[in-house]
Amino acid sequence: MLRQLLADHAALHRALGFKFRTPGILLRNFVAFAEHRGEHVITTATVHEWALQAPLPEQRRRLLGVRRFALALHAEDPRHEVPSADLFGRASRRRRTPYIYSPGEIRRLIDAAHRLGPDDTIRPLSHATMFGLIAATGMRVSEAIAIRLPDVTDDGLIIAQTKFKKSRMLPLHPTTRRALDGYLATRLKAASQSDALFISHQRTPLAYPTVISVFLQIMRSIGLRGTPGSRGPRIHDLRHTFAVRSLERCVHDSQAVARHITALSTYLGHAHVTDTYWHLQSTLELMAHMSTAGETLHRGVTA
Question: What is d(CA 246, CA 265) in angstroms, rounded to the nearest whole number?
Fold first, then answer.
């Protein structure tokens, strides 16, 4: 019963334009947990016990997704209990400090991807090229997975399936273009019923959970992450790194930085320039530039 209610709930959200991917995964996990206990309605006790199974205390906030589901069901059937939003206490949302990769660490990630198995399959090259493309363009991993062969044009990549339903064109650096063309030479020889740019050794499109799993496996193998459940650099931090390194290379005057931030926001596919600020993180180089600009301003010279 809960499974069918979830299917209807997910269908409604998708009809409204939501992808409902991550919430869908969490809610399916919860429904399986509840049905295994023989329950057909949502109870606060079950939500609490399920949320406690999260590997990290911060992840217990996933109960909020179940709470929204419960609110929708409770409107039609009051037997469904709605857990309190502060079941685990109130906590302010804190920005997780992004990890800024060094060029050497990105190279180690790509090299390790090239060593993946099975041998003589497209899998190693597919993952290595995807990780390299994300690092070189700052695109979202979901956008990389969604790229189709026709999206690769002479002018760059067409990012058609975006977070905010806004398509954009991504011009590519010549070195990135050469790496992508090298992958395409292999990809076009691989018979597949899908036109997805990145495919597995089974010739099927790469799935989001698979990409994340492979990424974490590689990061542990090269010593950049600890055991499962521990914190460490994320694949999304490649996007943060692109934004920071891009700003580091900007001409250092206020007008140039303002123009650069606007262009960077467009390139990253942000709906608002404030979203781009969220991706930035101070580095030694940026701090040095800000210090120089501050000293210049203090001397009465316009920065």
Answer: 11
